[in-house]
């Protein structure tokens, strides 16, 4: 399970990273982004994988300078042809005690690797005829109701392959903590109270779906008549001799649990969840135990005299059921595609499962045709696996990293390419946005991490990124228009959905200077898509609305609270957002218990609110040399300097000949300028701007990432 405060996402926009960091500080938890994809590796002469070479590879890998900072303790097992080739621990299970990692006994939270085991349980019941993959899953959950406006029901297979079409439902920060240790909270009650509606046609799109696997675990429990954790122990763990694996945090499992560390190195106290048993991510295990599972799975489901699956079932779990292109498979029953290797794509010959908690990360990958399995787990969330996987493949099985061979392909015409153009927002987190444009017969893509780059067409719906050398693919609807995109950098575990064609507003025509910003937000659903409505572009934005709009476009939801820190916000739609903003230090109020939510906000006030969040990413000293003109109050100067340096403003603000910028700091913030701010928070590659600024030693105004005609 990918557990972060805003849900696990491979890449967050810089603004969202900064906002998340504020949440982390408030909750004493940490989140981190999925690491960048593996470096380019090519097909070279392989090393034979045996006990000696496996051990040597591990020792060499874990002593690399770039690897050492990425783990506190790590445990790894490599199996081949039914034998353990290497099983080793590195680092410590706990920094305070210095206890070394023991691959046989040190327990790790394997997070979403749990899903593989939940899928095994489901497939056992499929073998027994108690579950059918093409059945409506609600058949097995009597009394459950779900809003599904589509003719197609959600099937068991849809749940297994992350193609349910559900609205996002993830475990949230307040569903985990030390306060849950020792308590028993049931899956059934949690599931019924959190049931998502179906918002996309089932079976048509890929969104990493924790809730789907919670439901699968609940179905296993109801169909088998046994508590899920009991079923797993009796029918999976015990037959394989996995005595150190459980979905419950108790007994020797708890005693041997490694201390978890955030990506920033902060040790976390032992915690548990609501619900207590998490089929989607609550399994605890050791490298040795996972090695036993891999041996059995690669042996057709059998280990010695025990069998957990029929050989035919294992083969069915190895087959990709969802893909956007042959070079970019998505999911099998219980597994997902490996990391893309530049120029090669993601091999359909390899099945994997990644897992993340706030303080643990894991990676399991199998190469069935080689009878090889590898499991890596470590007690510090982060990118260790992103380095491990390509190095292992390059060393032992470089054929899976061979560059894809494309026959001479004639790229499509500009008119044909235009069907791909638009704004795409990640299904799981709308704040992850890519802008795709057609110009002069080629596509460009831009996002808040890598900025703009060219996409070269190599197949009808497949493009190679000129910068990363990785593939991006599009899914077409029945009319031949792009409706989804799979892009490997922001989120390899799901699709981005293309926004609707914006209708505009009656008072914002296509030639309006702020139209591109406003239309993008309208395309992605942040504004009503009704061309008869008025936008009032020059009207002022209130303090309360600004806080709500900025946080909502960042993918944040805020619930009504029984009490508020300000006396003048209760009953307002913005009140929950203002309270959240206060909790993370984004707003402070007037010092007399009031926030004045209905007062129009000035541009410099808005800048200060944003700076309080960005300060965790970018210290104000970075912007000291930014030249300002016009009038800015002293208390807002550093915030306005940051806004100017990062290009967080609209087209009416232009640098003067001497490089100085008049931010119009004391002017009211208008609807149109707020739209430009929200646009740039989502799409401006601010990390690159900061790097360029630091490398150049100059602090100059950045040009806003001007919206184009992507929509």
From TrEMBL:
Residues 561-624 form the SLH domain. It comes from the Bacteria. Keywords: Signal. Residues 1-35 form the signal peptide. Gene3D superfamilies: DD-peptidase/beta-lactamase superfamily. This is Penicillin-binding protein. It comes from Paenibacillus protaetiae.
